[in-house]
Design goal:
The protein is mainly β. The protein has a domain of about 100 residues. About 10% of the residues lie in helices and about 40% in strands. The chain is built from 2 helices and 19 strands. The chain has a 9-stranded antiparallel beta sheet with strand order 12-11-10-9-19-18-15-14-13, with no helix packed on it. Strands 1-2-3-4-5-6-7-8 form an 8-stranded antiparallel beta barrel. A two-stranded antiparallel ribbon has the order 16-17. Strand 6 and strand 7 form a beta hairpin. It is elongated and about 55 Å long. The termini are far apart. This is C-type lysozyme inhibitor domain-containing protein.
Length: about 240
């Protein structure tokens, strides 16, 4: 078995065991290994924080998307968290819509139709999205890409921690104090061995080339003479 296949196999197995039935291939494949120790059922910011005063989060696997749903007590709205994003849809306790044309149906089976995309059937799951788990750990921005699989996470603050897994997890880098770019579009710094690292972020729609999963930002990560392209989300928005 090649390193690439072993990397994806290990990550995919954890997702399959967590869901009630195997989901479609996900854009999460390069990143789940980084969040296994944090997938404890809680999330914050672009995910959810579970407290006694709030309604519980209902989790679904909708195709390749891990979705968290929190319904209001009167059932007139639901807040959805997926792919590092949050959306509030209004409804009647069964069907929920928003002005962008997104539709969520909470029946059996539940379904999610994001604007311009095919309807996804949703099955209950206990699986917590890596995006929610990252938000719970204080990650401010997260991005991932394919071919080769890679993942980067940025902490909070003016000079945050930057950590990345590259080349299907074969290589890891860490910057303790990443400096912001002059135009505020990302971060840069050097690793302990002097390798230059630069992350550029553009607030524009971005789709994962393998799964089609959509995100709010495009990301370009340069490590030395290697360049990685992918999609991401601001988890503190």
């Amino acid at each position: 078995m090649t390193t690439r296949h072993a990397f994806f196999a290990a990550v995919s197995l954890s997702m399959v065991l967590a869901a009630c039935q195997p989901p479609a291939p996900s854009a999460e494949a390069p990143g789940n290994a980084a969040t296994d120790d944090a997938a404890d059922g809680t999330a914050a910011q672009s995910g959810f924080t579970e407290t006694a005063a709030e309604a519980p989060v209902v989790r679904y696997q909708c195709g390749e998307l891990a979705v968290g749903a929190r319904f209001t007590a009167d059932g007139d709205s639901v807040e959805l968290a997926y792919s590092g994003q949050r959306r509030t849809l209004a409804g009647d306790g069964a069907d929920y819509v928003d002005d962008a044309g997104n539709v969520f149906r909470s029946g059996a089976p539940a379904s999610l139709a994001l604007a311009g995309e095919p309807t996804r059937e949703c099955v209950p799951t206990e699986h917590v999205s890596p995006w929610e788990a990252a938000a719970a750990r204080g990650v401010a921005f997260r991005a991932l890409g394919q071919e080769p699989g890679w993942l980067v996470e940025i902490g909070d603050g003016e000079q945050p921690n930057l950590s990345a897994q590259l080349d299907y997890g074969e290589r890891r880098i860490e910057l303790a104090d990443a400096a912001p770019l002059d135009d505020g579009s990302g971060f840069h710094g050097e690793t302990g061995d002097g390798t230059e690292v630069r992350l550029e972020i553009a607030r524009e729609s971005c789709a994962d080339p393998m799964s089609g999963e959509r995100f709010e930002a495009a990301a370009r990560l340069r490590v030395g003479d290697r360049e990685y392209h992918g999609c991401g989300a601001y988890l503190e928005d």
